[in-house]
Design brief:
By secondary structure, this protein is α+β, with helices and mostly antiparallel strands. It has seven helices and ten strands. β9 and β10 form a beta hairpin. 14% of the residues are buried.
């Protein structure tokens, strides 16, 4: 019996040792024009060189990859107990947020920066592509409306009527995706899209109130909330100082 138990223990130990780590690979490139029109001048860019970086949501570096022949590669390991997480990919010609999870990804830095190749990232790319399409439709309608007005600049009320129509379409679309994913990072990303324009911590708290606890307590939403609170505290402290640095009433 002891021999059987020992053999079983040895087999389990061997299996644990031979278990492959969870890894991710990001093969990257750039989508950047060879030349740019600036006013009446055409500026030609040189070769894209240097490094591309991965950073966490606080901006702390995770990894770097050298650009060789305008391409770059990241290889990383994810602990088997670690959940997928958000990170930024940052380069001179673009940056974007994506989900770090096991698999093979491709990244194209430009306007916009696109990272895809895994389930959540592919869904994020598809969603944001639709949102961008709605944005182009909004721009076209505003342009057409201005032409109908004889080229006269639209007033704020006219702009907001059109903007509200398209923003409503976007919010309904993103909200429908959120409700199907309120317990994972896609749902968190949706919540971020719907709340990214919050101008104060109170406004953000009001927007996220109906969201699930998983989403409200996520690092991405909490980082946004902390940022707004820090801005408000800095503004309040500044208001307490007169131009010569002396304390005043803050009015």
């Amino acid at each position: 019996m002891k021999k059987i138990i020992s053999a079983a223990a040895a087999a389990l130990a061997l299996a644990a040792c031979s278990e492959k780590p969870l890894t991710y690979t990001i093969e990257g490139s750039f989508d950047v024009p060879e030349s740019f029109q600036v006013g009446d001048s055409v500026i030609t860019r040189g070769p894209i060189v240097g490094y591309v970086y991965l950073a966490d949501l606080k901006g702390n570096p995770i990894d770097s990859a050298q650009i060789i022949d305008e391409k770059f590669t990241f290889n990383g390991v994810i602990d088997k107990d670690q959940e997928p997480y958000f990170a930024y990919i940052i380069g001179e010609y673009g940056q974007g947020m994506f989900v770090v999870e096991p698999g093979e990804l491709t990244a194209v830095l430009g306007e916009p920066t696109v990272v895809k190749g895994t389930a959540v990232n592919d869904q994020i790319v598809a969603m944001m592509s639709y949102v961008d399409t709605i944005g182009y439709q909004l721009y076209d309608e505003l342009q057409n409306l201005q032409e109908q007005n004889g080229g006269k600049t639209l007033d704020q009320n006219e702009i907001m009527v059109v903007y509200s129509k398209y923003s409503g379409v976007v919010n309904r679309y993103v909200d429908s995706i959120y409700h199907a994913n309120d317990d994972n990072l896609l749902g968190v990303y949706c919540a971020n899209v719907m709340s990214v324009q919050a101008q104060s911590s109170a406004e953000l708290e009001e927007i996220i109130a109906p969201f699930s606890d998983y989403v409200k307590n996520s690092q991405l939403i909490q980082e946004h909330l902390n940022y707004l609170r820090e801005v408000e505290m800095s503004s309040a402290a500044f208001d307490q100082l007169s131009p010569d640095g002396e304390n005043n009433s803050g009015n």
